[in-house]
Amino acid sequence: MQSTSSPPKIVAIDDHAMILTGIVDLLKQKYPEAEVWVAQTKQAGQELIASQHPDLAIVDLAIPNQTGSKATAENGVTLLEGLMQQSPLLNIAVLSANANPLVRLKPQIDNHEGGFTVSDKGWAIEEIVKRVNMALEGGRFLPKEMKLGLELKSEWLEMLRLAFEEGLTDKAIAQRMSVAEKTVQNYFTKVQDVLEIYREDGHNLRSQTARKAREAGLID
Amino acid sequence: MKRIKPRWRGLKREFKVWQVGAIPGLIVIALVLLLRAAGMLQPLELWAFDTFMQLRPPESIDEQILIVGIDEKDIQSVGTYPVPDAQLADLIEQLQASQPIAIGLDIVRDLPVEPGHARLIEAFRTANVFGIEQARSNGIVRTKPPPALPPERVGFADLIVDDDGTLRRALLGTPTGTEYKLSLPLLLMERYLSDRGFVMESSDRDEQTVRFGSTEFTRFRNHSGGYVNANDYGNQILINYRSSKSPFHVVSLTDVLQERVDSALIHDRIILIGMTAASAGDIVQSPYGETYGVKIHAQIVSQMLSSVLQGRPLLNVWSDRWEYFWILGWGVLGISLARFFVSPLTILAGLIASSVLLIGVSYAALVAGWWLPVAPVLLVLVLNGAGLTASLFYRYQQDLQARLRDRQLVIEQIYTAVHNIPVQTLKGILSSVRQGNASPNHFHEDLERLEQELRAIEESVRQEILAQDNLHLCGGVKLNLQHPLHQLLHEVYRATVMRSRDFHACKT
User: In which domain, by residue range, is A189 found?
Assistant: First the structure.
């Protein structure tokens, strides 16, 4: 949710430099001013994030706990759990070969107010960068394995009703729901992810959301 | 409390292990003790005793004693056998000229052997001449003392031989009907010691035990050392043989008669006269091999004199209680070898090391005058150590087989899993490719499915290999019970929703 006007601060945590270098290079093309730190272990990553307060954390799921130990997805999952708890606004881009270990964090991810995207390491590098960038902009993208059809929280439904049935502005919705305006925008990105509406489609996101929500029977 | 608990539990577990491992070991110890009590181990013990005796470092010649041996050459030069009284009288006279302390005639002279009987009676008059008799008859005729000698100068020459024919004990005194008789060696040494101010006394603890000054000659009992139910009549002691090829100066009858013997070898010594001719038949078996009777008497005199005057050790034995402790201790050591060393080879090395230690300690003890049990100790040590080693080998083999079986099972499982699911998918893809109706979309989906199936197999195999705190739900869902409860509940919720088509009542 950080604005992109000031140069972004990025922390990347991955014990394999290969993919990381490609991503960082592409990100630097887009944000030449960006500051990037790289950590190879869970512990080093935690320390970096605590000291630098970055806008974006790129996290490989399979990382070692400390130098010399074995890389496991469990380490990545517990790292993410801690990050989401400590910095609810942190934008997170996850790289993984298998998103299944993330499933148990789903409720926490749904509540997380920062961007959260998951990329498959098997994807083309441009595709991954697109998701990382999406996270930096506060967007959300979860893989199919993590979705159970149309899984929506009641707040999101309420927000959809207020937005499209009563036609309220974000500010009015925020007042009616007694939440911050940013939270309303965050709800939108989450619903859009559930409905699989992403920015690259080149359409107006709000009207797309209204159309698909109506098709799915979420609003009248 | 928290710290003590695991330690206590560890102790308890250790105790359990010992219960299992130690019971056969303790049975082995009990069996060996039974064998020993039944006397089955006595031959082994005596063999070990003889071997250690022979291996002791050599000692110097005893300069307190001279043996005059009448050998085959003497008999030939005399020309008649038994050697006539005249020659013995000449011998005694010749010896007396150099002033020995005592002369013991270890030759039977209950009857005159002419010529020269009158001269021998004359020689017997001197108060330092001692003769022999037989104290115990063995059912045959009892040899009587020379009539000319007063009873106080007659000692018995009876020797006690073990069942295996070897002589290891000396009889010092024995009751015969109304009298109590003393042996020739005891009389000779008493004479020697009385010149040096010692008086023969009884021990304060045991009336029958002989004591000179502070030296007590502990009596041999029927269970002393390795003996079981030995005959301990009279007053017997174990002979601590002087370890040497020639422990005494030995001269012949002819040497003395022809005055070829240095008088220093005779002066102030105990002289023992006896037969050293094989034909005379006065031969016994000692731990060192066959020996003439006169040399055995010399050994007995020598050991007693040396212990009183030079402090040379006598042979001591432990009380039965200590012997049993000793055996038990080494048996337990044998068991603990198997308990505390893991690999059979280490146990074997430990066993060899402790056996060598045991033998070394026993040998050193015997050199120092203590006869410790060896055979039963070695037996419990080796039986327990080796027995448990063997069982360990067996256990190891069993372990190995079980592990191989497990591995085989896992391999079979993987094979079945691969064959049942991904291979079928692969076949489906292949056949649709062959038929040419594989659209890129379908192809892509199939390949993704194949990847998921293979990954599922990898997961399930890992579950088999690592016994984790996992809960497996049907449908291939694995829950790690170490995760927080809310995360677990979410996973269960997902698994349930995903399988909602299986639950008819939940249909929406």
Answer: 154-215
